[in-house]
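hey m, so remember when u said the tokens were messed up on ur end? i reran from scratch. heres the input so u can diff it against urs
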Amino acid sequence: MSQVVPYRPAFRLGLTGGIGSGKSTVARMLETQGATVIDADAISRACTAPGGLAIPAIATMFGSEFVTVGGSLDRERMRSLVFEKPSARKALEAIVHPLVGNEIRRQTDAAATHCIVFDIPLLVESPRWRIQLDRVLVIDCLPTTQSHRVRERSGWSDETIGAAMRSQATRAQRLAAADVVLFNDGLSLEQLEHAVAQVARAFGL
């Protein structure tokens, strides 16, 4: 006689952190611990890649000059525009966010693990997310560390890095929204892996 296994809804963990915090590295580590990771940034990039669902609406709203010859979003041009004009950011989000939301729902429904990690850069800035999650994990580091990492990784100017950081929630706002904080500053990769493993055990992974 087969045993009936009671239904167990997946644990929903929100993962966020400021630019350069190491959030994406932590997401990959959680995935190796057995979680399903749903990456909102990756989904957004797919929507604005060549042939992406957002491209026709972006060309209509902002003009064909915001689409590269290869058919993708001109990220540098758009980044400059949204930093200068908050209304442009809202217009872009109105195009991209519904598409991202649809894909997140699809991936959530398809997940077969008992823990789903929602890697959401703007989790704190979007209050609708909190009520959908069981816990929020914030990856934290000093602002000076953020700047250094982004400069080394992307080669951005200090002005561009500062604008990007100002466009996100403040460090204090992220910490206030956290159920768990992982302070990723001065850690080796091995030490970070150990810290992530501890977090994973705390959430039953």
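this time it looks ok to me. The chain is about 50% helix and 15% strand. if urs says something different then somethings off w ur setup not the seq
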